[in-house]
Amino acid sequence: MQPGGRPLPVALDAMGGDNAPGEIVAGAVQAVRERGVPVVLVGQPRVLQQALDEFGATGEIPIVRAEEALAMDEGALASLRRPRSSIAIACHLVRRGDASAVVSAGSTAGVVATGRLRLRGQQGVVRPAIAVTLPTRPRPTVLLDAGATADAKPEMLVQFAHLGVAYAQVGFDMATPRVGLLTIGSEAEKGNKLAKRAHELLAAAPGIDFTGNIEGHDLLTGRVDVVVTDGFTGNVALKTLEGSVRYAFSELRGTIEESRVAKLGGLLQRARLRELRDRLDPEAQGGAVLLGLNGTVVIAHGSSRARGIAGACELAARLAGQGIVPRIGERVGSTPRSHRRR
Amino acid sequence: MQPGGRPLPVALDAMGGDNAPGEIVAGAVQAVRERGVPVVLVGQPRVLQQALDEFGATGEIPIVRAEEALAMDEGALASLRRPRSSIAIACHLVRRGDASAVVSAGSTAGVVATGRLRLRGQQGVVRPAIAVTLPTRPRPTVLLDAGATADAKPEMLVQFAHLGVAYAQVGFDMATPRVGLLTIGSEAEKGNKLAKRAHELLAAAPGIDFTGNIEGHDLLTGRVDVVVTDGFTGNVALKTLEGSVRYAFSELRGTIEESRVAKLGGLLQRARLRELRDRLDPEAQGGAVLLGLNGTVVIAHGSSRARGIAGACELAARLAGQGIVPRIGERVGSTPRSHRRR
Questions:
Q1: How far apart are the C-alpha atoms of B66 and B46, rounded to whole Å?
Q2: Which of B39, B97, B256, B341 could bridge B266 with an S-S bond, Cβ 3.0-4.6 Å?
Q3: Residues A115 and A91: beta-carbon distance below 8 Å
């Protein structure tokens, strides 16, 4: 909150993403006008001013200057070379208390590296994790880590469980989220060395409702609320899932188009299909959340358009407003010391 | 070949699988009668004799006695405790030259452990791998390892590439299969430690057409012919893929049933959908192949019915007939000594 009770704005990296800055500014306007989320745009003032003018939103959304930007193909190292990039300045605004959270559609590697460098890890959190939500019903399933920490230790997976539980509680109102470990068999002794040791630690961890191992085919069944895995496996699983759903739809379209009889049916169904595809669209979920830093960072899909950006701003404002960072602090602070390593 | 030029039979574990022995025997009858694949059934003679009688196939398919069987929930250790199990005897038949290959729908862990113990690894192969095929078109994509070796070393991934190339050449007539490494970014430096080191080794490996990294969403696009990964990641990816396709279909069915207008379309399309689902069905692919042992082992899906078993027998006979084991021997024999570790 700012003095006077007005909520702090979300710092939106206006230069990150395939469609920056046009769709990012459009998303900011949507967030402010349609969702009541205050936003500050971070980027090149001249360009952003012009974009705001086009929406008739001049003066409606403040701009903070950042002349540099990370390119989408720039990785983690660029964040060190560019202390004045739009994503770095956005993190800086959160750090000094001028913004509640960061939203960026920039390259994931760049956002993660910049976030770690500028916001630093929360007290007691060894490594951050990226949490995504899978489109299960009635409640989404939180999967983490989706790619922040490719080489994880078993102790980190226990921390990821705490991050995921906090996210499920704060973001989706789940009182006692059920936690599952992603591995390759339901028995405790199944998996690689990392998963087997993580299973032991999770089973003994206080404050985690650990239901045991789950497998790849359980990800979309809603068997658990939080899926814990290392950033390598989680990223492969997430992209495999997205690619497979896309494949199933495209095969289906092919099947419909091949058959004259089925074509009629396909036409009738087109609207329903579109609706379903929208629900499965990662953009509709608002974005991935980088957890474990001193500030909330939402990473929108690189190809996000205005709607996706507005959703990401709303998610960021909600998580910050509900205090996800202190919630994680409480949970990880309760982890026995032997599980924390630096 | 047996003396006289008749091909050796496939040794079929008649006691393995959720539907053993009924569907297994039915599959053997299909393999023999409809696909011209000679089969020998391994299991409890009384039970198998009775099943053959029901098909009017008495005397048509030989039976080799094995009174014990591995239960579906028995893991790797059971294979040590049960030297006279049906899967162990089936391996023994190959070992002593009385059968060309093994087919089992038993538990994957049990089949892998028994195969390793009874057939032993081929000269120069450090660890076996399970190869599966993904339903890309016009040609399938080979993915390995799908779960035999959960903790792999980078050198093993290079060997898996050789196993996969041999499988693609022998099984699917691909002259120079393109090999990709499954990881979490297209640049060489993306991934966990295992993937980064494997990338370096694959790029330098003679006899492998290495095209670089691929990601989860590339698995069903046919970008490469052989996907190499460790057994943990490969198993998670495969099961995620199967679960996601199943999910997309069930969501689609739900969408159709919810809408009265779309329902009509759905009815028209039902036959086409069934056809598509059949093509994506792992059973239709014939089964997974355990590569790197002194004998071909095909692991059919645990829930296989007669058609799946017959397909697995046909695949096993083809791979053995085309000499996949010596083909792997040539390839791995050409691996520089520094890449082989025991």
A1: 11
A2: B256
A3: yes
Partner residue facing B151 (CB), from A192, A239, A248: A192
**Is there a contact between A256 and B272 if contact means CB atoms under 8 Å apart?**
yes
Q: Among all residues of chain B, which has the CA nearest to that of A221?
A: B247
Owner of token pair 């039915």: B26
Q: Which of residues 119-178 of A touch B (CB under 8 A)?
A: 147, 150-151
Question: Chain A window 53-112: which residues touch B at a Cβ cutoff of 8 Å?
Answer: 75, 109
Tokens 């980078």 belong to which residue? B154
Question: How big is the CA angle at B116 (ends B9 and B150), to the nearest 5 degrees?
Answer: 125
Q: What is the DSSP letter of B59?
A: T
Q: A195 to chain B: which residues are within 8 Å by CB? A: 232
Give the distance, in angstroms, between the CA of residue A321 and the centroid of all CA atoms in the same chain.
16
User: Hey, what are B112's tokens?
Assistant: 């892998």
Peptide bond preceding A145 in cis form (omega within 30 of 0):
yes
CA distance, residue A319 to nearest chain B CA (Å): 27
Contact A47, A76 (CB under 8 A): no
- Is some CB atom of chain B closer than 8 A to the CB atom of A272? yes
Helix, strand, or coil here: A214?
A: strand
pLDDT in tens, chain A (342 residues): 555 567 899 999 999 999 999 999 999 999 999 999 999 999 999 999 999 999 999 999 999 999 988 887 776 777 777 889 999 999 999 999 999 999 999 999 999 999 999 999 999 999 999 999 998 888 999 999 999 999 999 999 999 999 999 999 999 999 999 999 999 988 888 899 999 999 999 999 999 999 999 999 999 999 999 999 999 999 999 999 999 988 887 777 666 566 555 555 555 566 666 666 666 665 566 689 999 999 999 999 998 999 999 999 999 999 999 999 999 999 997 544 444 443
How many other β-carbons are positioned within 10 Å of the β-carbon of residue B326? Answer: 13
Torsion, Cα B53 B59 B61 B62, to 10 degrees, reads 120
Q: Is the Cβ–Cβ distance between A84 and A14 less than 8 Å?
A: no
Residues of chain A in contact with residue B241, where contact means CB-CB under 8 angstroms, are: 216, 240-241, 243-244
Nearest to B243 among A191, A216, A238 (CB): A216
How many angstroms separate the most distant Cα atoms in chain A?
Answer: 66
Tell whether B257 is within 8 A of chain A (Cβ).
Answer: no
Strand order in the sheet with A39-43: A63-65, A39-43, A10-13, A101-104, A296-299, A288-291, A129-134, A141-144, A226-228, A178-182, A209-214
CA distance B327 to B122: 11
User: Which residues of chain A from 186 to 215 reach within 8 Å of chain B, CB to CB?
Assistant: 187, 189, 191-193, 195, 215
| Structural tokens at position B305 | 């019915």
Q: Give the DSSP per-residue string, B147-164.
A: SS-SS--HHHHHHHHHHH
Mutate to test the interface with A, among B157, B272, B277 (most CBs of A within 10 A): B272
**pTM score, whole prediction:** 0.91
- What domains lie within chain A, and their CATH numbers? 1-125+292-322 (3.40.718.10), 126-284 (3.40.718.10)
Whole-angstrom Cα distance, residue B70 to residue B75? Answer: 8
